[in-house]
Write the structure tokens for this entry.
Amino acid sequence: MTLSTDLILGLMSLVEREAGELILHARKIISKNKTDSRNVVTEYDIKVQNLLMERFSERISGARFVCEENEIHDNLKAEHLFIIDPIDGTMNFTKNLNHSCISAAYSSSGEIKAAAVYNPFVDEMFTAVKGEGACLNGEKICADQCSLKDGLVLFGTAPYNSNAWDETFVLAKTAFLNSLDIRRQGSAELDLCSVAAGRAGIYFEESVSLWDYAAGYLIATEAGAEVTRLDGTPLPFDLTRCSILAGGKKARDEFLELSVK
């Protein structure tokens, strides 16, 4: 069944706004540890994920899913696959920091074709369709093509991977010394969207999962950013964890030159 990616994007945006209401009206948020105290899940992660899966399944026959809170994932080469992070920035959500998002990417036969990332706290909807550019609330956005020294650097601390912490903070110091400043915001998808919108020069992290970057990757690349692993090689787009580096070409190349040994 052939479906218009613009139609699918409209569906994703509509459902994410519906899910955003669940987040905005959340009360008595209780988190449970998945692996340790840094890796948590709440009942709202599950509610949002179930809502997205239900709505997509209702509208798209044969919809398949790869979701953060599922232990079993569907085939990554499926004709109609949705890669979902129901709340990216769950720790922020549990602490009422109001910097979290709902993220969904649509993939067909292994190629990501549409993406929507919604931060309900500020009503910002980032979207992209492959080959059509990226938007914020319907307006076109472009990544900043500035030098590393003229932009902010966003980074993640790979909190679930202690083996990455030393290198993370070495790179963070390098970024701090060679940019305007650094920021740790707690949501990989929103960091990628910030790069896409020209709010930051680059974003990097030592360890992310597919649902952490699938939607943001398309949005950032459609906005003119380059997104790879930290060593400059392509992202794997599979279920293995990997590093990530995103930014305009100039800043990203400068950071690669400083960081790759």
Remarks:
- The chain has a mean pLDDT of 94.
- The helical segments are 5-24, 43-59, 90-94, 165-177, 188-196, 210-222, 249-259.
